[in-house]
Amino acid sequence: MNKIENNVLIIGSGPAGYTAAIYAARANLQPHLVSGLEPGGQLTITTDVENYPGFGDVIQGPWLMEEMKKQALNVGTIFHNDIVTSVNFDNNPFISITESGKEFISKSIIIATGAQARWLNIDSENKFKGFGISACATCDGFFFKDQKVIVVGGGNSAVEEALYLTKFASKVILVHRRDSLRAEKILQDRLFKNEKIELLWDSKVIEFVGKENPQTLKQVIIENTKNGKQSKIDIDGAFIAIGHDPATSLFKGKVDMDNENYIITKNDSTETSIKGVFAAGDVKDKIYRQAVTAAGMGCMAALEAEKFISESN
Ligand code: NAP
C-alpha cells in the first residue's frame, strides 16, 4: 500500500474542498485533496451561475470549478483523482484508505464531500432512471428537444431546471406537492412568465409508465394530494429536483451527525466531534447550501486545521 503522511487531507472537490485546499496550501501545509465520485461537485452539473461574487457577467458552473481547481493546484495542492473508501478517526494521525489503495496518514482532515440528489424512490422510477428520468437537466436536457417533460419539486433547483429545460423542450410541466413554491421570488417570477411552463399544484407522482425494449418513458400517473384524483399525462422525460442528501455514509459512527445525517460542527466553527477533523460545505449545512457559503466554510476549515496542527506540534 502506498502510504502518504500529510498535514491535511481534504476529502471532496466542490467549492468547500477547493477553497480549503487554496488556504491550506498557502499556509504551507502541502494539503492532499481526494476528489471523490463527482470531481468539482454539484456546480459541474449546473449551467448559469450569477450569484457567485466577483463576476460581472453570468458564468458557467463547470468553468468556475475548473478555475477553483487550477487555483488550488497552482498554490501547491496535491490532487488525487480517487475515492476514499474508509476512514479511521480513533487516533491521531488519522488513517484514510482510497479505492486505488493509497493510505493517507493525516494530522488533520477536512470533510467536504457535499450532498447528492434525492430521488422519489418509487419502483417505476428505478426502471426508467437514465431512460427518460434524470436528476440533472444540465446533463440531460439536450436529449429532450421539442419534447414534453415534467419537473418534480418546488424549490430553487426545480424552478431552475424547469426554466433551463424550456431551451430544449416544447413543454415543461412543474409538478409540485403543495400549492406554493419554496423557490426564491425572482425565480418564481421567471417561471410564471414563461409560456412553455405549466404548473400542476398539489400533485405527486404515483407511477412512471413506459415501454420495455428499448426502455422508453411514455406517461406519468399523478395524484392530486387534496382530492386523491389520479390522472395520466403523456411525457417524454421527467426530471426529479426534490433536494439533496449529505454524502456522509463514510463517516457514520465516526463523527457526530444530526437525524438527517448532516455532520454537526461547533458554533461558528467547522470543528466536528473529533478534534482535528473539520467539516465544510453542504455536508454540514442544510440551511444556506450555496457555493459561496461552502467556499467560506472551506476557508474556515483550513484556518482551523492550521491552528490545530500548530498547537499540536
Ligand atoms: P429544496 O429547497 O429542499 O426543495 C426541495 C423541493 O422538493 C421542495 O419544494 C419540496 O417540497 C420538494 N420535495 C421534497 N421531497 C419531495 C418528495 N419526496 N416528493 C415530492 N416533492 C418533494 O431543494 P433544492 O431546490 O434542491 O435547493 C436546495 C438548496 O440549494 C436551497 O437552499 C436552495 O436555495 C439552494 N439552491 C440555490 C440556487 C441558486 O441560488 N441559484 C439554485 C439551486 C438550489 P416542499 O416545498 O413541499 O417541501
Distinct small molecules: NADP nicotinamide-adenine-dinucleotide phosphate
Overall residue-averaged pLDDT value: 95
What is the strand tally? 19
Largest sheet: 7 strands, mixed
- What's the tally of helices? 7
Identify low-pLDDT runs. Answer: none
SSE string: EHEEEHEEEEEHEHEHEHEEEEEEEH
Proportion of helical residues: 10-25%
Shape: elongated
Report the C-alpha radius of gyration, rounded.
Answer: 21 Å
End-to-end C-alpha gap? 27 Å
Which percent range describes the beta-strand content? 25-35%
Summing up helix and strand content along with how strands pair, one would put the structural category as alpha/beta
Structural overview:
The mean pLDDT is 95. It is elongated and about 65 Å long. It starts with a strand and ends with a helix. The longest helix is centred in the last third of the chain and has 22 residues, at 291-312. A hairpin with a 5-residue loop joins strand 15 and strand 16 (230-234). With 313 residues, it is of the alpha/beta class. The chain is built from 7 helices and 19 strands. The strands form 5 sheets. Strands 1, 2, 5, 6, 7, 8 and 19 form a 7-stranded mixed sheet that branches. Strands 10-17-11-12-13 form a 5-stranded parallel sheet, covered by helices on one side. It has helices at 15-26, 61-74, 123-128, 137-140, 156-165, 185-193, 291-312; strands at residues 2-11, 32-34, 48-49, 59-60, 78-80, 84-88, 94-98, 102-111, 115-117, 133-134, 148-152, 171-175, 197-200, 203-211, 216-224, 230-234, 237-240, 244-246, 277-279. NADP nicotinamide-adenine-dinucleotide phosphate is lined by residues 51, 120, 152-158, 160, 177-178, 182, 204, 242-244, 289.
